[in-house]
Amino acid sequence: MNLQSLKKSIYAFCLILSLPITSYASEFLIDDLNRDKSKQQTWLVLPYVFSSDSMGFTTGAVGIFSGYIQPQMTIVATTFIGEELALRNEDLTDPGSARTTGAMLAISGYQPSFSDRLFISGIGAYGYYPNQRLYLEGGNDSVKDLENTDNDAISPLQTQGYNNWFNIYFRHVLPWGESKKTVMPKIKLQRGIAVNRDHIGGGKPFVTGQTIFGTELFYSKWSAEKLLESPEINTNGIRLYLEHDNTDYPDNPSRGYSFGAKLSSDFGIGNSTQSWNALEVDYSHYIELDNFSWSRQNVIAMSFWSAYSPSWDDSEDFVESGVIKKHQTPMWEGARLGGWTRMRAYDTNRFNDKAAIYGTIEYRFIPQLNPMANQKWNPFPIDWFQIVLFAEAGRVAEKYDLGELLTDMKYDVGFSIRTLAAKVPVRFEMAFGEEGSAMWFMLQQPF
Question: For the chain, which end, N or C, has fewer CB atoms within 10 Å of the first or last residue's CB respectively?
Fold first, then answer.
């Protein structure tokens, strides 16, 4: 793999999209035994630069602030700007040029004074991209052709446009299991490893562990200026979900399991493009292995996810002779694969259809060696480095048929180097699949 192909696969600007508010039932307090009681607050500011086809040479900075305002809260903010790129719009005689610009703010875990069990989180982002890729026809058999300039046959459609969105989460910790009496469990960390949780992880569902019922309000706008008709896809609606976490440390589990279910609905009101709905279920399991003399943690992590959109109607087009079907989920909702969480060797939302199935296995290893440990000059702790090997398989289909979903699946493999910085897992990943490779620089474990 040469440097040019590597650059084409970098999507480092997605650093801030995988955040604590998207993880499982994880409303808990951290007590870092390596830091004074008065210095539990941590922060991290990182500049970054990268180059990609969609954004060109881009520079930015991301800040992570943990334990400020309230001890369980995390605040993440980033902004970035790219070089001038020629616009790819054959409909304009002088398309001109534009640069990538974007910003994001996320606040997670705020506990209002009027409720002990309610937690409110929010995330919003603005971004303009001169050459984003939209997989409007992202079925399992679709062909990725970056050289095709036919607007009616492009997969993907490469166009300049906006990607703006925000989500607000209301998470209610149910009075069950570990949170029956104490809403937020206190997890004591010794160099990033939980040391007071030997008896936690893998108990009876809902009798042990933590369970959260959540409501999410979502809005997004994705524009494609290359299309003269219907150049925008807008969606807004509500998502209801139930999450159960029965692990020892939700941000980096070593044993136990977690599972959840989601129901998402856009009712077609306001500026919504059209109504749709989707169901998602998933299950993750973690097995702790014996340590070597030179290791701190060895874990086998496995995850299964599936999605289905009952509203999707393949028999009718949303616009006559158009690409989008009636009551179809947007490509970033429902049954979709590709990106920094599922099928990491493929473009974001590379595959999308009425139904999907996905499974992965990871080997996670934390060595004793940590050259950043006990660095007094460092304002934020680097508690461990983690080496990960992973393999993934998944497929989308026009109907939920296990016989079809389990044949002709997409596969990829990869490796990752992860670290616990400022109490937040940060991961660098490289994945290799049928359509090439992709590199990711993200926050939080993928599951």
Answer: N
